[in-house]
Amino acid sequence: MPRTTTLVFAGDSITDSGRDRDDAASLGDGYVQLIAQAAAGRDETVVNKGISGNRAVDLAERWDDILAAGPDVLTVYIGVNDMWRRFDNDDPTSAEAFESTVADLLQAARDAGVERLVLIEPFFVPVRDDQVSWLDDLNPKRDAVRRLASRFDATLVELHDTVTAAAAEHGAAAIVPDGVHPTPQGSAIIADAWLAAVVSEAPEKVGSA
What we know:
By secondary structure, this protein is of the alpha/beta class. It is built from 10 helices and 5 strands. The relative contact order is 0.16.
C-alpha cells in the first residue's frame, strides 16, 4: 500500500483563509482548499498551517509546530506582511533580514528531512495611488524568494505578475479587492499557479520528490 504524502502549507492570511485553527483538518476557503480538491483521489493529506498576519519572524516562532505536521512537501508563502507592517505600523523588515529568516527556516526543514520545498512568490496589487511605492519594499523580498528557491532547490511558484495581469484585466475588485486578499477567483489563480509549478515537475503525483 503506498505511503500517504503530506502536503503542508505555511503562511499568512492568504494561506489561512478563515480556517478553523481548533480543527486540524480545516483548510479554510482559499487556495489550499482548492489544491486539496485537486489532490482528491490521490494518497495525499493536506494540512493548512497559515495564520493571518504572519511575517517571516512569526513563522520562525512556530516552525517546530509546522515541521511536526510531518511534511513531505512543504509550501512556504510569506512576505506581504513583511512589507505591509512598514506602512501600517512603522515596523519594517529589511529584505536582508527577511531572506536570512526564511533561509534558516528552509535549512531547518531540509535538516528535518523534508523531501520537497515549494516557495510562493508574494504579490501586491496597489489599489491606491499612494501604494504604488510600496512595491519598492516588496520587490527585493520577491527577489529574495527567487534566490532562496535556487539555493534550496525549491519549486518556485511565480505569482506577482500573474495576479497583477489578472487584476488589470478584470479589475482589482474581482481578484484582490485590497491588493492582497484574494476573492474566490483570486484564490483559483493562486491554486492554478501552484498546481502548474508543482505538478508539472511531477505530473504523476503532487508529492513526488
